[in-house]
Amino acid sequence: MGLMLRFPTESPAILAMVLTNRPYLGEWLRFSEAQWIRDRGVKTVIDIGAYTGSLCFGIAKLIPDVRIYAFDPLPENFMKLQVLAEDIDLFPFNVAVGNQEGQGTFYRNAFSASSSALAMAQTHADEFPETAHSEEIPVPFWRLDEHLKEFDVTGTTLMVLDVQGYEFEVLQGSERLLADVDIVICEISVEVLYEQQASFHDIYTWLTDRGFYYSGDFDRLMSPVDGRVLQVDAIFDRRTMADT
């Protein structure tokens, strides 16, 4: 109801999402509170692990003229990104992103949002039993630095990584692209949820060595069992507190 009062002209669309597409509505709500992203003048977004495009939708509501590049290897997710691209400035790519080129193994999870290029650790399955089953499938992988000609990265640029433990490999394969990125929002597990995933320290050190500063968390995933923090969406910004 609060969102409908804030956006009265969009009330029919909000009601429709309440009934049919709650993830899109959830990201709209989340980004309606993230005015700092709009105030930073973000013009380009690189969404890696875009899933069905709910984050793309939420950011486009916050910044209507934003250009978004979105990546997801699962065909069913890519189809939804293509539909969304009819309404916003979105360029979808049906590939996994990492630090390799060519075909690779991807673990499609029964709970699709938990799919990953890494095998799931037992802790993840214990915390979220609905994610216990995965199947291995072949998908194409890109190193983004090998495909820079595909992107027109202009203005203040935000990169969002949500690839279920594979974030470090994505960063390593995107080092040249990151030179044009101003803000990174990176999902990082505090506990081991996927086998061979990098630690918070690994990613923090790698990004700070390349001129980014840790600026807090955009969101957190808490354990449904005991409430401890399992994962954070960490914000890394090239701008320091002294610059604000």
Written account of the structure:
The protein has 2 domains: 33 residues, no CATH class; 210 residues, Vaccinia Virus protein VP39 (Rossmann fold), CATH 3.40.50. The two termini are 34 Å apart. α2 crosses α3. A 7-stranded mixed sheet has the order 3-2-1-7-8-10-9. The chain has a 3-stranded mixed sheet with strand order 4-6-5, with no helix packed on it. It is an alpha/beta fold. It is globular and about 40 Å long. The longest helix has 11 residues. Helices cover 31% and strands 27% of the residues.
What is the overall silhouette?
Answer: globular
State which percent range the strand residues make up: 25-35%
- Determine the CATH topology of the largest domain: Rossmann fold
Uncertain segments:
none
CATH domain class of the largest domain: Alpha Beta
How far do the termini sit from each other? 34 Å
Could you give a short account of the major beta sheet?
Answer: 7 strands, mixed
| CATH homologous superfamily classification of the largest domain | Vaccinia Virus protein VP39
**Count of DSSP H/I helices:** 10
> Strands of the biggest beta sheet: in what spatial order?
3-2-1-7-8-10-9
**Estimated helix fraction:** 25-40%
Question: How many domains make up the 3D coordinates?
Answer: 2
Residue-averaged pLDDT: 89
The CATH architecture designation of the largest domain is: 3-Layer(aba) Sandwich
> What class, by secondary structure content?
alpha/beta
Rg over C-alpha atoms, rounded to the nearest angstrom: 17 Å
